[in-house]
């Protein structure tokens, strides 16, 4: 059984707050961390399954890029009850992939799942009908994002779908400050202290680089997608549906 623990990584004062990394310590607490940190996460995951069911085509491949512990992978798998598809889940964290394997083994889904521990930027997307980037692109260097999205668009069949969930920021500043404050209120309501919020913010500052909704939409269109829709938003967290 994979051990799961409550997220208390930033509960005590740290002499130095290191950059956030998806290491073994994070992997052990990740389910608790993401549910308490990302508003709407428990809504987005099952909807990924519904979107997959609608857009998956027989005899194609579906990809979950940045699969972490496999929540979106399993949602996609459950959406593939009828389509004859192979599901490829990729993450560059060995700690995440190791635990993801456990959850895949426990699942009763029928679609075959191939797990890969590698850099998703180096994976050629091929014969795809659905691709998911669930809070993943924000951790990729901004300069690498256009090429990555073009690779996805090039590998999708016409009518294929990309589900892209991201933390975003807003302009003007007043809107950003309001939504950011509500996000911190959400974290406090879920039991995080001001110390934990502050130290986690410092850890992510140089690692998670958010962009505006408009920047995301334009880049997706420039990458070869024909339409982009914001299908979900809660505070400064959104999910896009981009159709090839």
UniProtKB/TrEMBL annotation:
Keyword line: S-adenosyl-L-methionine, Transferase
Per its UniProt record, what PANTHER family does this chain match? CARBOXY-S-ADENOSYL-L-METHIONINE SYNTHASE (PTHR43861:SF2), TRANS-ACONITATE 2-METHYLTRANSFERASE-RELATED (PTHR43861)
What class does this enzyme belong to in the EC scheme? transferase
Question: Could you tell me the gene encoding this protein?
Answer: cmoA
Q: Where does S-adenosyl-L-methionine bind?
A: 41, 66-68, 91-92, 134, 201
Please list the residue ranges annotated as the Methyltransferase domain. 64-160
Q: What is this protein called?
A: Carboxy-S-adenosyl-L-methionine synthase
EC annotation?
2.1.3.-
What GO molecular functions are on record for this protein? transferase activity
So what does this thing catalyse?
Answer: prephenate + S-adenosyl-L-methionine = carboxy-S-adenosyl-L-methionine + 3-phenylpyruvate + H2O
Function as written in the Swiss-Prot or TrEMBL entry: Catalyzes the conversion of S-adenosyl-L-methionine (SAM) to carboxy-S-adenosyl-L-methionine (Cx-SAM).
CDD domains, per the entry: AdoMet_MTases (cd02440)
Q: Which InterPro entries match?
A: CmoA, Methyltransf_25, SAM-dependent_MTases_sf
Please indicate which superkingdom the organism of origin belongs to: Bacteria
Family the entry assigns: Belongs to the class I-like SAM-binding methyltransferase superfamily. Cx-SAM synthase family.
Per UniProt, subunit arrangement is:
Homodimer.
